[in-house]
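for the recovery benchmark. C-alpha cells below, seq after
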C-alpha cells in the first residue's frame, strides 16, 4: 500500500470510528469489532484481539478476537504475569515482537489450545485516565513481513479510540443502570426497608456490617425466619461502594428448579417451550451491584454447581446458550436452615458452603433482643395508623407488657402482622391487649416464667460466682430442651436460637450427657 493511500485510508478510518463512537454507546462490542477490523486492514495482518484486565484475579480475558482462531480463544484466560500481553498491561507500554516464539515473555497456553501459531505481533495498552485496563494485539503480518514503527503508530491511534469508546460506554451503561434500579424499585413497590434497632447485639452487628461492606467477599446471613436477614443484606449493599448499582433480590424457595435456573441465569429464545424471546437473568441484571439469594438452603444441587462456578470464575451461560457471560456481582445469601447439617446429609455442597460462608452473620431471634420490641412496635403502629386512617398514639401498659413477655416464634414478621391486626381491629387512641389476638400469649408468659424459675434457688456454699450460676442454669436448661426433643440437636438448636455447632460445643464444655437408658 503506497504511503499517500495509507494516510488517506487512515484518516478516513479515524473519522468513521469517531462518528461511530458518538452514536454506538449501546453496542460497544460491534464498535470494538469494527476498530479491530480496521486495524487489521490498515496494518495488513491475519488476526487481532482485545483483552481486558480482571483486577481481582490478575487475569486478562478476551473481549473480542478476530481471525482463524477467534472463536476458540474467547474462554481462555491469559495470566498477566506470564505473557506478552500481560507485560504490556503491567508496564503500560507498547511493544513490537517480530520473533514471538523465542521471546522469554511468550506463553504458549493459547497456542496449544487453539493450534494457531503466533509468528510476530504488535501490542498496545488500552488506557483510561492513564491506567492500563487492557491490551490490543495484532498477530502475524501478511506475506511473512515484519511489523514496523508505522504499524505501531496506527495501532496506538486506534487504542485511543477504544479508550474513548469505553469511557463513553461506561457513562451510558451507568445511566442505564440507574434507570434500571429505579424501574426495579417501581416494579417491586419499595426500595429499601427502614432499619430499626436499639439492642446492643443489633448495634454491634451494624458495626460489623460497616466493616464487611468495604470488601467484595461473599456473606452468609443466618437466623430464624422473620428476624430481618433481608434488611441486613440491604445494609451491606447500601454501605458498600456498589450502593449506586442494582440490588437484586431472589427467593430461591419461591420457584421450581427449572424456573429458578432461568430466573438466575436467563435464557435464550427457543431454550425450552414458551421461551419466545431472550431473557436477562438476575445475575446479569445485578452486574456491578449485589445479588441477595434468600433461602439459599432450598437451592437444588445441580444449581449449586452453577452458583459455585459464578463465585469462582464470575462466569456462566444462559439456559440454551454456549456463550459465556462474565459478571461482577457481590453475593449475599441467607437461610434459616442448618447448612452444617445439610452438608453432612449430602443436601448442600461443602465447597459451596465454604465459598458462601466467608463472612457469616448470625441474626438473633427477637425474643433474645427484647430492647428492639418497643421501638419496632412503635414504628409499625405509626405505619399502620396511616394505612388504616386511625390515629393510634401508642399502647396500653398491659399491651406493652404482653409484647415483652410473648415468645415471638415468628420474630419481627409476626410482630409486624400482630400490630397491623391490632390497628385494623382496635380503636384509638391506644392499642390494647385484646386487639393483638395473641391466643398463645398466656402460655408463652408461663413458659418464660418457668424458664426463670428453673434456676436452682439454693446454691452450694463454695463457688457462688455469677459465671458458675450461669453455667449451672445453661446446663439444666439445655438438658431440659434436649430431653423435650428426644436429644435431637437440630430441633434443640432451633428452640434455643443458636447454631448447632454451638450446641455441640456447650455439650462438651458443660459436660452434658444423654443419660437415657
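predicted aa per position
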Amino acid at each position: 500500500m503506497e504511503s499517500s493511500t495509507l494516510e488517506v485510508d487512515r484518516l478516513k478510518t479515524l473519522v468513521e470510528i469517531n462518528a461511530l463512537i458518538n452514536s454506538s454507546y449501546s453496542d460497544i462490542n460491534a464498535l470494538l469489532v469494527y476498530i479491530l477490523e480496521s486495524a487489521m486492514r490498515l496494518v495488513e495482518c491475519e488476526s487481532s484481539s482485545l483483552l481486558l484486565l480482571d483486577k481481582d484475579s490478575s487475569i486478562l480475558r478476551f473481549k473480542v478476537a478476530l481471525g482463524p482462531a477467534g472463536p476458540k480463544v474467547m474462554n481462555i484466560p491469559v495470566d498477566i504475569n506470564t505473557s506478552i500481553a500481560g507485560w504490556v498491561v503491567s508496564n503500560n507500554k507498547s511493544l513490537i515482537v517480530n520473533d514471538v516464539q523465542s521471546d522469554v515473555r511468550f506463553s504458549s497456553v493459547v497456542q496449544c489450545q487453539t493450534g494457531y501459531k503466533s509468528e510476530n505481533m504488535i501490542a498496545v495498552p488500552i488506557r483510561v485516565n492513564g491506567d492500563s485496563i487492557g491490551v490490543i494485539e495484532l498477530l502475524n503480518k501478511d506475506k511473512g513481513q515484519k511489523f514496523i514503527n508505522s504499524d505501531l503508530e496506527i495501532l496506538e491511534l486506534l487504542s485511543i479510540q477504544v479508550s474513548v469508546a469505553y469511557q463513553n460506554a461506561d457513562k451510558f451503561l451507568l445511566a442505564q443502570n440507574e434507570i434500571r434500579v429505579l424501574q426495579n424499585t417501581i416494579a417491586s413497590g419499595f426500595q429499601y426497608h427502614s432499619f430499626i434497632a436499639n439492642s446492643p447485639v443489633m448495634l454491634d452487628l451494624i458495626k460489623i456490617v460497616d466493616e464487611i461492606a468495604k470488601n467484595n467477599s461473599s456473606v452468609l446471613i443466618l437466623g430464624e425466619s422473620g428476624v430481618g436477614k433481608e434488611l441486613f443484606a440491604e445494609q451491606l449493599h447500601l454501605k458498600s461502594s456498589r450502593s449506586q448499582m442494582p440490588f437484586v433480590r431472589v427467593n430461591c424457595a419461591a420457584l421450581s428448579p427449572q424456573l429458578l435456573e432461568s430466573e438466575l441465569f436467563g435464557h435464550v429464545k427457543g431454550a425450552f417451550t414458551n421461551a419466545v424471546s431472550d431473557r436477562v437473568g438476575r445475575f446479569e441484571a445485578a452486574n456491578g451491584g449485589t445479588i441477595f439469594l434468600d433461602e439459599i438452603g432450598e437451592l437444588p444441587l445441580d444449581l449449586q454447581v452453577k452458583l459455585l462456578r459464578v463465585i469462582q470464575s464470575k462466569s456462566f451461560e444462559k439456559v440454551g446458550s454456549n456463550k459465556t457471560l462474565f459478571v461482577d456481582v457481590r453475593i449475599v445469601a441467607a437461610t434459616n436452615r442448618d447448612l452444617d447439617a445439610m452438608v453432612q446429609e449430602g443436601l448442600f455442597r461443602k465447597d459451596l458452603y465454604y465459598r458462601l460462608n466467608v463472612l457469616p452473620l448470625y441474626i438473633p431471634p427477637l425474643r433474645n433482643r427484647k430492647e428492639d420490641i418497643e421501638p419496632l412496635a412503635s414504628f409499625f403502629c405509626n405505619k399502620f395508623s396511616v394505612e388504616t386512617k386511625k390515629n393510634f398514639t401508642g399502647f396500653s401498659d398491659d399491651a406493652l407488657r404482653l409484647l415483652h413477655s410473648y415468645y415471638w416464634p415468628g420474630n419481627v414478621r409476626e410482630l409486624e402482622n400482630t400490630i397491623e391486626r391490632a390497628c385494623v381491629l382496635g380503636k384509638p387512641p391506644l392499642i390494647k391487649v385484646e386487639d393483638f389476638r395473641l391466643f398463645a400469649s398466656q402460655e408463652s408468659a408461663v413458659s418464660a416464667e418457668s424458664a426463670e424459675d428453673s434456676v436452682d434457688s439454693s446454691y452450694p456454699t463454695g463457688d457462688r460466682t455469677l459465671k458458675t450460676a450461669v453455667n449451672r442454669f445453661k446446663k439444666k436448661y439445655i438438658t431440659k430442651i434436649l430431653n423435650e426433643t428426644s436429644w435431637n440437636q437440630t430441633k434443640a438448636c432451633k428452640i434455643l436460637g443458636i447454631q448447632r455447632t454451638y450446641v455441640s460445643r456447650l455439650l462438651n464444655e458443660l459436660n452434658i450427657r444423654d443419660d437415657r437408658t
